[in-house]
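User: I'll paste a sequence; please echo it back and then give the predicted structure.

Assistant: Echoing your sequence first, then the prediction.
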Amino acid sequence: MTTLYETNVIIGLCIVGFCLLGVGYNFRYRGWGLALVWVGVITMMGPIAYRLIVMF
């Protein structure tokens, strides 16, 4: 995988994660809003974990 493609995928995942966090936080008093927050957190942690695994 090329570096530019990998960077674009990571940035895309971060944007999706931020959107999920924002929508989930707005509806945090409903069950599905809290679930969106958790999915957003996992989506944000995925690229970080991937970069750490690749680095070490």
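The mean pLDDT is 91. Residues 14 and 44 are 6 Å apart (CA to CA).
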